[in-house]
Structures are given as structure tokens and as C-alpha cells.
Design a protein that fits this description.
The structure holds two protein chains of two kinds. By secondary structure, chain A is mainly alpha-helical. Chain A has one domain. Chain A is built from ten helices and no strands. In chain B, strand 7, helix 6 and strand 8 form a beta-alpha-beta unit. Chain B is α/β, with parallel strands linked by helices. Chain B has two domains: about 220 residues, P-loop containing nucleotide triphosphate hydrolases (Rossmann fold), CATH 3.40.50; about 80 residues, 2-Layer Sandwich (Alpha-Beta Plaits), CATH 3.30.70. Classes of the chains: A mainly alpha, B alpha/beta. Chains A and B meet through helix 5 and helix 10 of A and helix 2 of B. Bound molecules: adenosine-5'-triphosphate (ATP) and magnesium ion. The site of adenosine-5'-triphosphate has 13 residues of chain B, from strand 1, strand 2 and helix 1.
Chain lengths: ~240, ~325
Amino acid sequence: MAVLLAFFQGLFFLIGTLVRREQELFARISGYNDSVLYQMAGVPVLLLSLVMVSAVGEYVIELGRRGALEHIQTLPVDMKLVMGAHATTIVSVSLLYYFAVTVPFVYLRGGPGAVAHLLPAMLVLALGLLPLFLFAALVALLTLLVRTEAFLELVSASVYTFTGIAYPLTVFPQFVALVAQLLPHPHVAESVRLAVFYGVLEPARLVPMLAVLAGYAVFSTAIYSRIERVLRRGGRYEVVTE
Amino acid sequence: MVAAIEVEGLRKTYVERRLWRVKRVVTALDSVTFAIERGTMVALLGPNGAGKSTTVRILSTLLLPDGGTARVMGHDVVKEASSVRRVIGVMLDPEKGHFGRLTGLENLVFYGVLHGLTRSDARSRAVELLEQFGLGDARDRPVEGYSKGMKARLAICRVLIHDPEVLILDEPTAGLDPISAREVRERLKGLKREGRTVLVTTHNLWEAEELSDRLIVLNRGRVIAEGTPEEVKRAFGLMWNVELEVSGNLEGLKLGWETELGISERGRPLLKVMIREDPSELVPLILSELRSRGVQVLSVSVREPTLEEAFVRAVGGA
Ligand SMILES: Nc1ncnc2c1ncn2[C@@H]1O[C@H](COP(=O)(O)OP(=O)(O)OP(=O)(O)O)[C@@H](O)[C@H]1O
Ligand SMILES: [Mg+2]
């Protein structure tokens, strides 16, 4: 993961320095008005999300396969707490990665001032990782329900394609773009980009993301209870290995 | 006195779907009622698919029933799941639930902490249990290197780490060789002496008889017999098969028991005697009876009745 992150950051840097007038160039090629650079700044969010989806999914499936998931369900500990502990670890490690990998490039391109922009970006990213984690946890639960690991791959592929991070959302049909807006990723990526570029933590920018975050928290708690009930009704905590 | 486990009219139907279409509907429990008194060890006995694991899963709050109620130490398993979880220790599969790369001790400490123990309490309790269950030497080795028997004993330790009042164990000897199975049974008998309430499932009548004070027999999601091992065996009319390879004249032979004639694997005449009482008393009687009639006995084997056989007969006869 670190390698991928470094790779994209490197690309981000190269494009930034080599293509001077990248904005115009990109606008000419794609008809889209954001610079490649700006687009690229969201890539770490995408990568972290992909890593999170597969890490949490694999974690849940692996626990299930070992019979530990079921066993933990019989303990007086809330599964949300277990997932929360897992989330804390993943989020802190991700932030460290992001910081370590991004600082050199940002410094080279923008100097110390740009590095200062990274701090609000980190804060935004930390906040943004939470809905991404909730998203990953939901995907993990759904994977239990669907009972195929391929589901994880499907979600990862969709996240990669439809979140407006790898490509701008505007290249998609309007409907797809609209649905993609329901995912947390575009919002998180957008906030992180803004923070990296301008270092802004304006309420006008932050409020939508906080709203998305809160929305996701409410939504996933509700969905979580529902899915958990379905799982408990169907005896699905037992992961069959065929 | 409140019973430790009270199950009333419990029903559970599994609906298997492929996508949205219903593929198969299985009634796993069909109005199951029983009660288990505190401090007793009771075996839930039944052939494959009887609904034992389903009952265990409902009692351990993993599975929601479709109807009926179940209470553990007075707490409802649906409405008061977290209270139930505090008083039970559950083993679903003796081999599963361990983290292979962690050592036996680390596994126990991990689960102890999840049960709300402090790290040091969990550790001292774990060390004590590992010692007690003969895993003291292996405690710092990764669990993936344990034998099945060791994993099963570790699973018992795990169930005991928080000192629960009620133990619910699903086939604790499944997949073990006879020696390890016996060792596990010995340990389980020790638990009874500690005054805990234990519900243990098995499909082996002899194991059930050895372990428990009372049997509850399930078949196809219904309780079909309940009582002391003696009562249950009598209710089923279980019979031992005493098979004797003989030489001599068998014509007109009449013994006081039900007999059948056949040919043994080695091609010798085979006399099968079906008895209902303890073979250790009856076999010598049969032998002396035969000797007195001039029949020479070349070999004797006693086949214990299996529960499956009894079920086949009970269901087939009905
Ligand atoms: N998750 C499930 N989905 C669908 N059917 C199930 C599920 N779990 C159990 N069943 C079915 O319910 C019935 C009862 O199963 P259960 O596991 O309770 O039996 P058991 O007495 O534990 O048997 P065994 O000795 O094989 O462990 C069986 O017919 C089984 O196929
Ligand atoms: Mg079972």
C-alpha cells in the first residue's frame, strides 16, 4: 500500500513540475476544468478507502472462518467496540502513511508553506476516514450476508471507478454521478484536496463534510442493526468455507 | 428456585435463499421445551441435524428464534442478550475460535479482556487454567501448532476464563481421537464437581451417559425423551448385540433371549443374542449356558447399541 501511495504521490509531483500549464492541458483534453494535479490529490483517499474496504472485509471474513466472529458474538462486548478498535488502528496507521509519503513531495513542490497546508489536510483526512471506515464496515457485514468474498472485489472496483477520485465525476452520466454523490468518498476526497491546495478549513467547506460524516454515522448505525438482525436470524455469523 | 436454563416452545426455521428465491426451508426446532436445574450437567442428545447446535446457538444469543422463549439464569436470550452473555461460557466448536498465531496464553488473555477482566486478572486466571488443563508447558507456543486434543482443552479454558455460571458446550469431543475425547470428558466431569450448570450436546449416547445426570433427547427438532440415562435407555428399548462365533450343533437351541443365526466374516456360524440389560453380567451367563449345551464358542464380541439405531427403529416403527 505504501508503495502505491508513494507511486501516486510521485506521479502527482512529476505531473505538477513537468506539466507547467497542466490546468489548461487537462481542460483541453478532457473538457474538465480541474487540474490533473487537483484530481490526483484525492488519490490517497481512494487508496486508503480501498485498503480499508479490503482490510476490514478480510478481517471479518477471517474472524468468521476461524469461528472467532461467532465466539465474540457470545461475549458481553459490543461488536461495534471491536470494530471501533480496529478502526482506530487502521485510521492512525493510514494517517501516518499519508503524512510520511506526502511530506517530501509537497515540500519539494511547494516549500515549507505547502507543508503547513498538510496539517489541515490531515485533520480533514482523519475526519474523512471515519465515514470511509463505516463504509468499509458495512461492506464487511454485507459480505457476510452475501457469503461471497467476490463481493469485496466488486465493491473495491466500484469505489475505484465511481467515486470521482480516479476520474472526475463529471465524465459519468448524470445519474451515476448522482448516485456516486451518496458515497462518502467524493466528499472526503474533495475536502482533502481543498485542504492540501489551499489549506482552508472554512466552515463553508467543512460543514458539508461534517454533514456527510454525521449522515453516514446515523445511516450505518441504522443499517448495522438491521443487518445484524438479519445475520442473527439466519445464523449467518458462521462463515462457511467451501 | 429458578432453573438455570428454561426453554419453552422454542421454534426455529431456516430459510435458505439463493438471491431472492427460497431454495429450502428447514424446520430445525419444532416447539422444544425443557428446563435445566442449577448445578447439574445435562446432555442434549440427538443424531445429526436434530437441532442441537440450533438450540445452543439460540441459548448463546447468536441466533434469534422464530417463536417461544429461552431464558438463561432468568434472562431472556432475545430481550436481555447482554445479561445472558455475561453469565454464559460458550464453546461452539472445540477447534475453532482460536487465533492461530497467538500463543495459548495470549488467546486466553485476549478473550478474558473481552470479557471485561483486567489484563493482569486475565493473565493469572489463564495461567491457572492452562496448568489445570495440562497445557502449562504449551502455553507460550502458537496455537496453530497444537493438536486437536490440545485445542479442545484450550477451548474449555477459554470458556472458563471469566468463571461463568452456565456452560454451553456444543459437541466438545467432536473430531477427537478416543483418548483425547476421554481426556476431555474427564475434564468436563470435573466442571460438574465445581457446581456449574453445564449443557453439553453430543450424538453419542455413551458419552452423554458418562457425562451427565440427565439426558434430553432431540430428534428432528423435537424433544422425544427426557430423564436419567437409565430412563431414556429403557424408553428406547435399546439392545446390545452379543455376537458369538460358534461351532457345534445349534439346531433347536433355545436361549432365554432373542437370538438370530448368521454367518460370520470368517465364514463360521454366528449366533447373535440381543439383550437389554448390562452385558457385563449377561455375557458370562450366555457363555455358560452355551457351554452346558455343548456349543463351543470361538469368539465373542459385544456391539453397543447406537442412538442412531434406536432412532431408526423408533421412527421406522412409528
Ligand atoms: N444456517 C443454516 N441455514 C440453513 N439450514 C441450517 C442452518 N443451520 C442448520 N441448518 C439445518 O437445521 C437442521 C438442524 O441443524 P443443527 O445444526 O441444529 O443440528 P445438530 O443437531 O447440531 O446436528 P449435528 O450433529 O450435525 O451438528 C439441519 O437440518 C441443518 O441442515
Ligand atoms: Mg451441531
